[in-house]
Design goal:
The chain is of the alpha/beta class. It has one domain: 3-Layer(aba) Sandwich (Rossmann fold), CATH 3.40.50. It is 47% helix and 15% strand. It has 14 helices and eight strands. The strands form two sheets. Strands 2-3-1-4-5 form a five-stranded parallel beta sheet, sandwiched between helices. It has a three-stranded antiparallel beta sheet with strand order 6-7-8, with no helix packed on it. A hairpin with a 2-residue loop joins strand 6 (244-246) and strand 7 (249-252). Helix 3 (62-72) packs across helix 7 (115-132), helix 9 (167-179) packs across helix 10 (187-203) and helix 10 runs parallel beside helix 14 (284-300). The longest helix has 18 residues, at 115-132.
């Protein structure tokens, strides 16, 4: 790896919370590379029909070819199923993350059992740093267990951004996505997943190698320029190359996102507007069901009076 420590601005939280848009805004800044959901690189990044955020099939993207050549001798040299299995064996499960943080024995076992996986991550992120000339990588993989693994990789500094959206908004968005055949979450799955993911992400405050920053989706969309600037300052990165033309209007160019939301390939100038259509279109009975399963955190994050 490059001798200079590489900063990883890691966005964690539950899906359908605006993470891709936030990551892309940060990725426009000089010295910051938005590489997408790197946790899924072995499962989704190099499928035959996978497309990079730049619009090129991933196998043909010159940037990803250079990254994989430097790290592993080429994409074709990587045993993808073996990598998937290695990640699953090595990465802490979300439901068990607190045990890893409070038990020194579990933490030691993780370091012992994940040595091969951490070596893979060291080569991958180091190669990204070298090829992209990056001081920081934005990784919007969302899973807190993956952030825990990254925090144990030599030469990486993890700046965790805990992105939170109202559970009802997330659940409504998942419901729309599932109706389009792009998921299989039930209302209960989404609500309980929202609880578990946010609780687990907050436990990473205790990790000695992780710096923690909390941001609500609603505050981000209402004040995007201010929110992006605060994150860059949190990660000790310059803010003068943010591409906002007004406090809520930003220009987006393509990034080499390996995987993520479908809108990661859209370019041009966009104006951010708060999406709260769920307040009108989500049946009241469904809103109440979600509240019944998430109300302690809804109170904590100031979504309920």
């Amino acid at each position: 790896m490059n001798h200079n420590p590489l900063k990883v601005i890691y966005i964690a939280g539950w899906g359908r919370s605006g993470s891709t848009l936030l990551a892309r805004i940060l990725g426009q800044v000089d010295g910051v590379a938005h590489m997408g959901e790197l946790r899924t690189i072995w499962t989704d990044g190099f499928k035959s029909k996978s497309v990079c955020g730049c619009g090129t099939p991933t196998h043909d993207c010159e940037v990803w070819q250079a990254i994989m050549n430097q790290a592993f001798g080429g994409i074709e040299q990587v045993d993808l199923p073996a990598m998937v299995q290695l990640r699953r064996q090595s990465e802490p499960k979300t439901s068990e993350l607190l045990k890893f943080l409070v038990s020194s024995n579990k933490a030691k076992r993780f370091l012992h059992n994940s040595e091969s996986y951490r070596h893979v991550l060291e080569k991958l992120y180091g190669s990204i740093q070298n090829v992209c000339g990056a001081e920081a990588i934005v990784d919007d993989s969302l899973h807190p267990g993956y952030a825990y693994a990254l925090a144990s990789v030599p030469n990486l500094e993890v700046f965790l951004v805990h992105l939170i959206r109202d559970a009802r908004g997330c659940t409504y968005s998942w419901e729309k996505r599932c109706k389009n055949g792009l998921g299989s979450y039930t209302l209960k799955d989404s609500a309980l997943g929202w609880d578990l993911r946010n609780i687990a992400t907050e436990t990473l405050r205790k990790h000695p190698n992780i710096k923690y920053h909390q941001l609500r989706y609603e505050d981000f969309v209402n004040h995007p320029q201010e929110s992006a600037k605060a994150i860059l300052e949190f990660a000790e990165m310059p803010t003068n190359s943010l591409t906002f033309s007004s406090p809520s209007t930003v220009a987006l160019e393509a990034t080499h996102s390996i995987f993520g939301n479908d809108n990661r390939a859209e370019t041009g100038t966009i104006s951010l507007r708060l999406d709260e259509v769920w307040k009108k279109k989500m049946p009241l009975v469904d809103q109440l069901k979600v509240c019944s399963m998430t109300w302690p955190l809804l109170l904590k994050y100031q979504y309920m009076p």
